Amino acid sequence: MADQDVAPYGPRYPARRLLELVGDKWTPIVLFSLSDSTRRFSEIQRAIPDVSKKMLIQVLRALEQAGLVERTVYPVVPPKTEYRLTPDGRRLHEPVAALCTWATEHEAFLDELHRRRADG
Q1: In a domain, 51, yes or no
Q2: The whole model's pTM is what?
Q3: Which end of the chain has fewer CB atoms surrounding its CB within 10 Å, N or C?
């Protein structure tokens, strides 16, 4: 095993592995939007108005590939596609929801951090 694999914060470090799954801009928000129900693609897109259709498709496909989201396509015209969290997705939802809830409760703090970062 390489030294970086056994280092305390190496590639196998659990937090790094978690952030590889959910550490981008859109994945936690998409997971959180599916927390309470099955949703159609258009419902998810309306709930997250600044995500592009292309990006939402990419995130949903990645989540489906990871086994966190289940997609159901109904053979109707126009096509109807629904997404819901799998049991693994619901398990991962817990830390994501905690992060999203914390962010909502500390919005003023986050505003200040963003302001400082923008001021350089």
Answers
A1: yes
A2: 0.84
A3: C
Q: What is the mean pLDDT of residues 107-118?
A: 95
The structural domain count of the chain equals 1
For the stretch 75-85, pLDDT in tens is 999 889 999 99
In a domain, 102, yes or no: yes
pLDDT score for 61: 97
CB 85 within 8 A of CB 93: yes
pLDDT interval class at 9 (50, 70, 90): confident
Three-state secondary structure of the chain: CCHHHHCCCCCCCHHHHHHHHHCCCCHHHHHHHCCCCCEEHHHHHHHCCCCCHHHHHHHHHHHHHCCCEEEEEECCCCCEEEEEECHHHHHHHHHHHHHHHHHHHCHHHHHHHHHHHHHC
